[in-house]
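Q: Structure for this?
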Amino acid sequence: MIAVADNKTGGLVTIWIIIIAGMVLALVPMPQLVPIELGFLRPDWVAMVLVYWIIALPHRVGILTAWLAGIAMDVLLGSLIGQHALSYVLIAYVALSLYQRLRMFSVWQQSTVLFVLLGINQLVGFWIESVAGLADWRFWYLLPALSGAFLWPWVFLMLRSLRRWTGMT
Amino acid sequence: MLGYQMLGLGVLSLVLGFVDHTTSWLDGSRSALTIALTPIVVMADLPSRSVRGIQGVFSSRKDLRRRINGLESELIFLRVKTEKMAALISENNRLRGLLGSAAKLQDNVLVAELIGVNPDPEEQEVVIDKGSEDSVFVGQPVLDSRGLVGQVVEVSPFSSRVLLISDERHSVPVQVLRSNLRFIAQGTGIGQQLELQYVNSTVDIKVGDQLLSSGLGNRFPVGYPVGVVDKVAFKPGKPFAEVLAKPNAQLDRSRHVLLVFTESRVSEETNTSPGKGDDRGG
């Protein structure tokens, strides 16, 4: 696995595998035993993974990666093409401008920043949908940001150990 | 540099969103991308698929035999019913011919399997494994074994997206079986319910009334079960009554759905009908 470190395309493959894993998590249907309302708590896994990669490898993962992942999400979820792309581009921009500071933060401090980033993500998505006349504002549109911020420490630690294990820089 | 990249891609996204919302120019690229991304949809469906697979592995011989016996007796029961139906249909068409109206056509169906569910609980959409290669088209009605499920809203070659009747953006024209009153049933979003719109406080509608698709609007075929009225509330001072119905179809449980193909022979039949009408007059 250490050999991957020298191989630039190998690293790119790992990055995209994790982003795709996030897309799979975003699509997995809820088991029928749990109440359907729990679906409102599903965090935006792809946005979280993108923010992690930007903090960890800002020279390899950037706005273009976020845009491509956003277009893929738009197709997968059947939303307007460009909706997720726009919100991912915006949070990627903020994360890229803050990554040096974010690296200094403790995991829980990062969580609060994540809450703001994921909140922007949700708001932009809602804004596009409401301009297109597809949605009314509901308070639970911000719940995914809350759950995402809460789950961030685990995502961060897991992805960091994965990155160190594959030796990506 | 970073800012320009952000601006460029952001504006591009906005333009794409606008174009996608107002025109259908992007439908081709969307369906091409859908094919490319199908592995992700299939992977997301793996957990529920494998749970069912494991259940199959661990079900005992006795259980399977009992299930087969149950299915066989159901098959015989349904066969008998169909035989009766065939006679009834020909009789019905003969009578319709006497009345001078177009003969009813048998609908062809294609079985499709669910491969995905929209993760947003507010959007009641599912993805099925048949697409334009199986000549599925946008607007096609979708049924399950108990009633109307919804309609196709997006087609790609090997999969398509179905909007369920319980979605807030979906309405279906219905007719009450008992009184022949016509209404529009709109979805309510969460909770698998339909709401009848513009029901006058004086009309004859009761809990337990069966709603059938009325065929108005030329989208859904006539006579498929849509739902059963389960709440009627006449509110004094309000112009319309609040009437809720529960869909017949098992919207959250059915894994298999039926795509309906109605042959477009209706127009020919209608053309010949005036002659038959004259017969009646003479």
